[in-house]
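Reviewer comment 2.1 asked that we show a complete input and output for one of the modelled complexes. We chose the L-tyrosinamide case, as it is the one discussed in the main text.
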Amino acid sequence: MKVTSKMIGQRNGMATKREEGTVIEARQSKLKPPPLFKVLLLNDDYTPMDFVIIVLQQFFLKNREQATQIMLKVHREGLGVCGVYPKDVAATKVDQVMAFARQHQHPLQCVMEET
Ligand code: TYC
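Response of the prediction step:
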């Protein structure tokens, strides 16, 4: 597709020529939206509940009520979703949580999984 200065409506591979109101080309985009990743906390027998609540507030921007509900879900069911993010953001959250848990000598595990 030849790109011209008149392609004002260029968005996600769909090009339209808005001057004169004429569509010169409109093809289905071959671009897929970027994948999203769930960030999960895993249960263990040693990490204090209050520490998990702090993690959820500090790294996943949950309020105390939301953080408590997610922590209890992980505690009862073995794992729980903290948030859903693009790959690089999810990877950074996992690294930050793992580093924070290690600093405090807790065995808390945080992983990511494609949605
Ligand atoms: N099971 C832990 C306890 O009883 C609490 C806990 C919750 C640990 C969530 C990890 O991701 C976790 N102290």
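The longest strand covers residues 79-86. We note this here for comparison with the apo prediction described in Section 3.2.
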